[in-house]
């Protein structure tokens, strides 16, 4: 049984996949299995996967019809046999010492989760951000890790720059046909971990390219961005029971997401095209207005906007749009 199971979701990534796979196979830590899950690719990605499997016995390939990333994650969990679980996006790559570093941290400190920052890079491999690289190691409780995650002071809502004890996934599934699936399970894993260890050393390289779910859809409006709604509802219900002190912060982040969607629609001058989405957004703002009224994480002027949008959506959209035009 390998110590680590790494999975890569593959869908039409023939131009990026070799670099990703090579970065994994060239790790200084070799006791792992690599699951390449070909999710119905129509390009040469499937053949690339098979070629690597023929050369390296650590590589296992699963070919399936296209079901989406959430279901791919679930398939990966079903077929993983390692003590620890990790994920890598098929257009990204990892530093040679990433697995060794994260596994050693978990093993030596008896921590079920280890994590590191990531470096965003462009198509030419040029860095787009400068995360800290002090190599500082910090142990934290699950409460601290959750709080810092929702404060955006840790390593994001993603799973791919982290290593997880396999047992944490017992009873945890990725929601089918939903984007931003990592955020829908990360809080559950952190809650179950009790102890989390962090090293301030960017070992994951996150490619910013022209296509992809989070890598392009967040730059403009897409209906898939409304998947944050069920994510919020599930997270809030969970936190209300287990970590009520975080509910206001989670609501504030959700409101920011809704408000940002409205801004993006208006900036694109697509109010008419997205009437249904705007209505849905305003309904959700209305649903949380009582929570916002006493929320210290939300600016008062934004609370006033929320009240206006919940009571008079059309007027609120008009005034909000007019205000944005004055700023531009």
UniProtKB/TrEMBL annotation:
Gene3D superfamilies, sorted: Spore Coat Polysaccharide Biosynthesis Protein SpsA, Chain A
Keywords of this entry: Glycosyltransferase, Transferase
Lineage, uppermost ranks: Bacteria, Bacillati, Bacillota, Bacilli, Bacillales
Transferase among keywords: yes
Membrane-spanning parts: none
GO molecular function: glycosyltransferase activity
Domain Glycosyltransferase 2-like: 7-170
InterPro entries: Glyco_trans_2-like, Nucleotide-diphossugar_trans
Protein's UniProt name: Glycosyltransferase
Keyword Glycosyltransferase: yes
